[in-house]
């Protein structure tokens, strides 16, 4: 105890007040330092110190040392509140561990994702399984449409199957049919796939897709497939790029 003393020694450091004692107790992960504080309840008191260490160490037993009532900017602190907070953290940790186990099982059987009651958590589980197994059907089990579209887009690109791009709802923009056709065409250097893109000219258009492929393959015939003049890329500018 610090009774009758202005300072005490904690691991060689001169301690002047409860705030500093709590800091050192946390730094050294040592709840016994809390006993060096004279004040039982209130800010920077024994109660505060033990509560903080109880959460830090996830030890409900430390809450037994909280004897009074302390009002803080985060609410009223009592032994019961301390126990509730630590218990909640432990329960959350348990849920995380259970989710990890389910996610692992889902690589073999996506149906186990249904054990997760939270919609977002369930969809994350399904997407992880779908991407791991390159399985479009697993994406289609998802509830949240935006996540489902992202999942489908990722898996279709993994498969490199442009015939699946039609499963995407949006024609243009993020996770869209056009972007799907464009990416697969460029990845496979297959100009025929560019024809699936709805836009003739502009970014991620048919002509831009053809130009991207021509730059890599250096094939004149690919440039000659470009029809729109005055767009992002023309036959002439494409030919100029492949001959430089």
Care to count the β-strands?
4
What integer is the average pLDDT?
Answer: 89
User: How many separate helices?
Assistant: 10
CA(first)-CA(last) distance: 82 Å
Shape summary:
elongated
Largest sheet: 2 strands, antiparallel
Look at the helices and sheets and give the structural class: mainly alpha
Could you characterize the architecture of this molecule?
By secondary structure, the chain is mainly alpha-helical. It contains ten helices and four strands. The protein has helices at 18-27, 46-57, 79-106, 119-133, 136-139, 145-159, 177-188, 206-217, 220-223, 235-243, and strands at 8-10, 13-15, 70-72, 75-77. The radius of gyration is 31 Å and the shape is elongated. 32% of the residues are buried. The model is unreliable at 1-15 (pLDDT under 50).
């Amino acid at each position: 105890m610090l009774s009758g003393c202005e300072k005490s020694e904690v691991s060689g450091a001169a301690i002047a007040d409860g705030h500093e004692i709590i800091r050192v107790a946390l730094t050294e992960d040592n709840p016994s330092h809390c006993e060096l504080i004279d004040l039982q309840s209130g800010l920077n008191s024994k109660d505060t110190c033990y509560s903080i260490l109880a959460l830090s160490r996830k030890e409900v037993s430390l809450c037994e040392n909280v004897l009074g009532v302390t009002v803080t900017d985060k609410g009223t602190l009592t032994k019961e509140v301390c126990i509730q907070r630590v218990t909640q953290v432990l329960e959350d940790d348990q849920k995380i561990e259970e989710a990890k186990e389910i996610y692992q099982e889902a690589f073999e059987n996506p149906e186990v994702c249904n054990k997760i009651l939270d919609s977002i958590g369930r969809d994350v589980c399904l997407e992880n399984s779908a991407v791991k197994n390159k399985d479009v059907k697993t994406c289609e089990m998802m509830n949240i449409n935006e996540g489902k579209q992202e999942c489908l887009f990722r898996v279709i690109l993994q498969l490199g199957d442009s015939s699946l791009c039609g499963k995407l709802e949006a024609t243009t923009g993020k996770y869209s049919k056009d972007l799907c056709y464009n990416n697969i065409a460029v990845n496979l250097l297959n100009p025929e796939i560019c024809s699936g893109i709805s836009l003739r000219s502009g970014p991620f258009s048919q002509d831009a897709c053809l130009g991207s492929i021509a730059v890599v393959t250096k094939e004149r015939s690919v440039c000659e497939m470009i029809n729109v003049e005055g767009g992002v890329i023309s036959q002439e500018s494409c030919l100029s790029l492949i001959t430089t």
